[in-house]
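Allow me, if you will, to draw on your knowledge of protein folds for a short while. I have a record of one protein: its chain in single-letter code and its fold written as C-alpha cells. I should value your view on which stretches of the chain appear to form regular backbone elements. Thank you for your consideration; the sequence and its C-alpha cells are set out here:
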Amino acid sequence: MTTSTSNPPADHVRLGSVQAAIWRNADSEGRIRYSATLKKRYKDANGDWQSTTSFNRDELPTAAKAFDMAHTRIFELQAIDREQAASNGAAKSKAKSR
C-alpha cells in the first residue's frame, strides 16, 4: 500500500502487526465518504520492515477485527463531520442575521 504525505489517512486502527488505514474522500457532490485499507507489517529475512496486504489463515480473524474496528471508527468520524457541519451552519446563520 502506498500512502502520500499530501493525503495522509484520516485515522487508523491497529491490532498488533495489522493496521487498517481510514481514508477521507469527497465524492463528486462534495459529500465526504470514507474507505479503509488493510496491511500487515513484518520483518523480512534481513530484519528490514516490510508490509503486505496478504494474510494467512490464522491472521484472518485479526484482519476481520481490524476492519470491524475501522467500520466503527468511520461511524464515529461521520458523527464528528455531522456535528461540525451543524456547528458551521449555525455560525453561518448567525452571521447572516447580523
